[in-house]
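User: For documentation purposes, I need each entry recorded in a consistent format: the amino acid sequence on its own, followed directly by the corresponding structure tokens. There are two entries in this batch. Please keep commentary to a minimum and don't merge the entries.

Assistant: Recorded as requested. Entry 1:
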Amino acid sequence: MKKIVSILLVILMLCSCAAIGGKTEFVEGITSPPAVKIQYSDVSITAGKGTYSWEYVENGKNVWVEADSDHPLFWEDIASFSAGTEKTAKLIFDERMESYELKRWEVEPGYFESEDYSVLDEGERVISEEGIFEVPTDGKMYVYDLYVKYEGGGSCYYGFRINSPDEWGLTLSVSSVTPTGATLIFKQSGGSPTGELMTGSHYRLENENGELPYIVEGDVAWTAEAYGIQKDGEIQMQANWEWLYGTLEPGTYRIYKGVMDWREAGDSNSKEYFAEFTIGEKPVKSMKIMKIVDGSESGNLVLAGENSGDVMTLNAKNVPVFLDGEPSDSSMLMDGMTIHVYHNGEILETYPASFGKVGEIHAFSIGSKNQPGGTYFDLCGLYLKVLDDLWEVDSGLNGGAEYVSIDLSEAPGELSEAEKSAVAWIFGNKYGVQALTFTMEELKNEGYLTVAGGSNDLYQWDNGVYMQIYDNSAVDPIDEESSSEIYFGLPVLKFDAMKWRSPLGAYMFMGCKAVWPEMGTWSDYTIDSQAIS
């Protein structure tokens, strides 16, 4: 299923109250937003969950969850039903629903494969009162996006699809579902079958991965009877799959049945219908987009997303790896690569955070769509080398340091906030000091610095080292070409680097240059001059 979800959990506070501001409290065990069902005639489907914010109580503590997902337009598998003769459908909400908004997009077959995100601006607002909305009668297919706000501050985006009316006027639904069987219901209304509609005893199941192997051994024999489906009528059939598939685990499934439009011997058409059903709660399957900051050689990865706290670790040595869609292994991973981590949705609250369980890693080589050429590939690796070199030179400046603050706020290359945090953590962990990412001004404001030499204008850091890499590509008023130096057709990254303890305790690398590797990793950098104070 092409659906991207990432989840962040934060424990907020101890809480034992029964209500917040007079609103319904989030109770123990309800760890995600409630389900929303869509009832259409006798067909009921559960809308898929996308992006949401949610709060719940666990062991007396409030836990806040943020989950990110693709828009429903990009879900390959999405809950759906076919339009029939009924003119309206009804949204069935949990009692905590506070408000909602429904939008729709007209789509064609294969729409979910599109990379055109501009279509998100073209949604049409759907008028709905008390959850009832009109089902389209124009014969087209629509994807719906439903935004729901809940009492207490939670919210969730849901998605579902309404398919074009069936040419034979048939719908298949499922009721009385158990782990070992269900009741199947075919209804006929409208449409234009040209003969007699018939179905047999045969059916097949698929899980959400699109497969479900037989559990029993030997050939499977189906009885040969045929069941007629009358015009404007319905038939109910019992399906007991315990003999074939055993007891199904909790999850979402599809059951498929073939139907024939029979006119006479040798003259008929057939096609397959399916209905979705859920046993228990659908398992969470999530994907998180990360960049490898460090650790590819050992397989113990340090990963960074976008926001400052989005730093994670992952042991990739025993995880299935796919490179550009082909089976591979962790030895093919490189620092700087973009990877998609498929996991069970659990994020362990350590720092850096870690995944509960990882199923697969999908990596992308330089030049691919997800890792295009012309990027500052593994810029974090270059800056870690600069910081290592700067730490080693004049090592006496580091004596007694308990902290290090790595300031990359003005470093060239537009690192994400998470990459900056990851570089700081890697460096601090390597040298056994607590890592910060404060600027000099922030260190002063946070009380880390003390006055030096009795002057309120001078400061020193008694138990820490401030390290900074900053852009040095400003145009020289004498030589305007100095900011656009080219080496073998590739631009040159220019920067200075400094470590500082006090006005009389600092060391600088000045006029540093590194060639931008359009389709590879940084080879090294040069230093024009060094200074000490």
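Entry 2:
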Amino acid sequence: MNQDDTPLLSVRDLRISFRVDKKTTVEAIKGISFDLPRNSTVALVGESGSGKSVSSLAVMGLLPPDTTVVHEGASVRFDGRELFELPVAERRKLCGREISMIFQEPMSSLNPVFTVGFQIGEVLRLHMGMDKRRARARTLELLAEVGIPDPDNKIDAYPGQMSGGQQQRVMIAMAIACEPKLLIADEPTTALDVTIQKQIMELIARLQKKHQMSVLFITHDLGLVGEIADRVIVMRHGEVREQGAASQVFGAPADAYTRALLHCRPKLDQRPVRLPVIDDYLSGRTAPGDTLAQRARGTGEGDQPVLVVNNLAKSFWLREGLFGKREFKAVKDVSFTLARGKTLGVVGESGSGKTTVGLTLLRLHRATGGSALFEGRDLVAMSDRDYQPYKRRIQIIFQNPYASLNPRFTVGQILLEPMRIHRIGANDAERVEMAYYLLKRVGLPEQAYHRYPHEFSGGQRQRIAIARCLTMKPEILVCDESVSALDVSVQAQVLNLLQDLQDEYGMSYIFISHDLSVVKYISDQVMVMHHGSVVEMADSDALYRDPQHPYTRSLLAAIPRGA
């Protein structure tokens, strides 16, 4: 057999367990097998906990040795070499030069106390034997190759001085520095704007072609997979449920779980009253051919305004030089009307001012101009004392439930605290009953009341955050990227919950997101922001059907449509 016909990476009967304690082990990978051909892209897809990242870390040799058990008979062969049989030093050298990895969260992967130039140069010095001068010259070439603007200055910048997209480009530069044969990309575009996501994907494709690399792409975004992958491997609960050519898996999926993943994500041309979830398909409650009832969206003359915002502005003052400072206008003259029981979607790239608008309306930032009229009273101008009663009526779900829930509080304490502060309920017994009701309302068991946030998944933590907001019975809820990093099935559950709550309580939402498919599904009206200003606003169907502004058209053109 010609070497070009043999797979670059071949995984056979990979079984991995983790020791929880002296008596307990959990099997995370249950005998999976797959091949990755040379000069091709294979996508590994599935929900959180499916074993995607564990499989890739096993290939890289990055699993913790003290708690990991690789079962006998497992084989991972790379370019003809059995990785599990290599000495540690030799395997580390191999994974530095011939196999590299882009990790999911660049801010956690890059060292904040070293410049990006030092960190890329370290790879070149360690694995390529370059001296400092040659490493710096090659680093400048790599920064230019991955599209970092002004590399002569950026080479001496720290990670915290760069945007998320630029940090991810630095990670890619580090990964390709040694021109590896295999690039493993673990969720490299999660939580990035659609335009930045498209740029990153085009960059990886261009580098793959230039350097003749194979790519193992790990993601839960099936729309993205359909655009880039030659082959697809679908995983769930540590097992491979289906694998094959991308056209076959997407065109005629054989496994019910694959069909479920494909149908859970909101589509631009449909808006069902209720999004199907994974269990609907696996239990047979929903079939792929079902015609789901569609939900009407939009605004009308009879809508009652609950919030009227006029010329809202927010500036930050940045230090410049030793004594100077300059004004940065984050939000510029933003105006909109939010109707009762309706949803306003706010979209735009990072830095467009979306989140600043939401935080300013909640007075977590002090506005530098404009007004926000709620029942005729200006939230921006009133004193802190006068604003106190309004805190109950306007709430926010933050983007990151891992950071917004106090890890030292049980779920019960998290829910009771705001009720005590705002004197909701006659006594603690009544508040506890209300907390149990809200947990049930967001789909969590009563036992969750006594547990801590770290004992829950990301989707469950977001439900807890929603329950905390509901303790206030708010009239306006600001959702700041509240479903952006969730799996498609969990995302569908949270969107269904938000819709149920809006139908039941008549709540109004300001839904901030960079996921344009989700915004189209849940919004009645969409506001597009760019560099702090509103460039377009229209009912969601009209805006997606006929965008007027070039920036809106560029956002819509960047939506992955592969699935």
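Summary note for entry 2:
The first strand starts at residue 9 and ends at 19.
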